[in-house]
Specification:
By secondary structure, the protein is mainly α. It has seven helices and no strands. The protein folds into two domains: 74 residues, Orthogonal Bundle (434 Repressor (Amino-terminal Domain)), CATH 1.10.260; 26 residues, no CATH class. Helix 2 crosses helix 3. It is globular. The N and C termini lie far apart (45 Å).
Length: 113
C-alpha cells in the first residue's frame, strides 16, 4: 500500500472515529492495540492490517469499502452521534436489546414480517 493510500485511509478512519465521538484510547482498547498505534494509523505513518481495518470499520459502523474506496460516500445521520455518545452508558445486555429492537423497527418500517 502506498503512503498516499495510508494517509487517505487514516484520514477517513479519524473522521469516522471523531464523528462518533470515540476517543483514540477507546478505539485502541476495543481492537486490542496501543493508542499510539491509532494515532500513527490516522496519520498514515503505520500500516494497517486487514483484521485491524475490519475491527475499526465495525466499531465505526462503516463498511470496509468506505475506508478503502475513494468513490464511496455515506450521508451522515445526525442522530448517530447522539446515539453513539449515549450507548456507552448502557450495559452490554442493554446494548444487545437495543440492537434487537433497532432490527425489529427496521424490519417493521420496511414492511417485513
Amino acid at each position: 500500500m502506498s503512503s498516499d493510500a495510508r494517509v487517505v485511509i487514516g484520514t477517513k478512519l479519524k473522521e469516522a472515529r471523531e464523528y462518533l465521538d470515540i476517543s483514540q484510547e477507546r478505539a485502541a482498547t476495543e481492537i486490542g492495540i496501543n493508542r499510539s498505534a491509532i494515532s500513527l494509523i490516522e496519520n498514515g505513518q503505520r500500516k494497517l492490517d486487514t483484521v485491524e481495518l475490519m475491527s475499526l470499520a465495525k466499531l465505526y459502523q462503516r463498511p470496509v469499502a468506505y475506508f478503502t474506496d475513494q468513490n464511496f460516500s455515506v450521508e451522515p445521520n445526525p442522530n448517530a452521534a447522539v446515539f453513539a455518545r449515549n450507548i456507552d452508558k448502557l450495559s452490554e445486555n442493554d446494548r444487545l436489546e437495543l440492537d434487537k429492537f433497532a432490527e425489529f423497527l427496521s424490519m417493521k418500517s420496511s414492511g417485513e414480517k
